[in-house]
Amino acid sequence: MTQATLTGVEDRYPTRLGHAISPVPRTEPTVWGDALDGPLSRAELDGFADRGYLIKAGTVGDDHLPLLQRELEWLGAELAADDPRAVREPGGGIRSVFAPHLLSDLIAEVVRLDTVLPIARQLLGGDVYIHQARINMMPGFTGSGFYWHSDFETWHAEDGMPEIRAVSCSIALTENYPYNGSLMLVPGSHRTFYPCVGATPENNYETSLVSQDIGVPDRDTLVKAVDRHGIDQFVGPAGSALWFDANLLHGSGSNITPLPRSNVFLVFNSVHNPLTEPFCGARRRPEYLAARDPVTTLAL
Ligand code: 6CS
Ligand code: FE
């Protein structure tokens, strides 16, 4: 019996299985709002629906960037060495800082910028809240990558997110070059859910945030997806933003250059898509990974 039937919530996207099953066509729309509902044009919305991502230059301007870059250093120093919200790279340095919007007023401000929140509301068709936020530092020399995955696969299995009605906004705080660990995307892959084989270990997030072994598509799936869709890359100056659908396959290589690729990721979830119980049957993940608190999940 799966967790879903225990809670009575239908699991339309089974994953973390004992055996491989066929990919599941997405049933939800990718874009829930319309051109009149926000700043994105019809063409931009159609592009997002087709490719599963959209790049917007100038999302954060020079008025915020230098302050945000300084904020990164402060956040890195502020968190105690044993704070679980600061995930470290095996080779040294900080890999990610989770829930930075709750630690920094400046990052909380970025969430509500006219170039950010209205786009999230338009894509998700109404009120939203922050499901998860993080800064991925991808430090120079030691930044280890993120293997191919769909964020929704994790958020569904381990956080109980029922529908694909969430979107990530990755804002470059440093220049994202083709060679310093910038995000690679499989355009169009968001229209298919790829069930993964392998049960979720207890407290999986204690290792998966550094190296994700469970909940990743097998190589045959990746060969077929890349063969069909190709690979695009998010490169651009500090201040530009990549909006990508929760189910879009993405990953990044390691960064052996001296140039950090530090991005802040804001994950917006629709208020109509509140978390239930983890569909993989594991215990709930901590609040800093998956917001459930009535205050932090208040509509923005
Ligand atoms: O487990 C998670 O929620 C995180 N893992 C990855 C690889 N991307 C999304 C998210 O930060
Ligand atoms: Fe991810």
UniProtKB/TrEMBL annotation:
Its cofactor is Fe(2+). InterPro entries: EctD, Phytyl_CoA_dOase-like. The keyword Iron applies. It catalyses: L-ectoine + 2-oxoglutarate + O2 = 5-hydroxyectoine + succinate + CO2. GO terms for molecular function: 2-oxoglutarate-dependent dioxygenase activity; iron ion binding. Signal peptide: none annotated. It holds the Pfam family PhyH. The keyword Cell inner membrane does not apply. Keywords: Dioxygenase, Iron, Metal-binding, Oxidoreductase. It comes from the Bacteria. Its EC number is 1.14.11.55. PANTHER family: ECTOINE DIOXYGENASE, PHYTANOYL-COA DIOXYGENASE DOMAIN CONTAINING 1. Involved in the biosynthesis of 5-hydroxyectoine, called compatible solute, which helps organisms to survive extreme osmotic stress by acting as a highly soluble organic osmolyte. Catalyzes the 2-oxoglutarate-dependent selective hydroxylation of L-ectoine to yield (4S,5S)-5-hydroxyectoine. Homodimer. Belongs to the PhyH family. EctD subfamily. NCBIfam families: ectoine_ThpD. This is Ectoine hydroxylase. It comes from Mycolicibacillus trivialis.
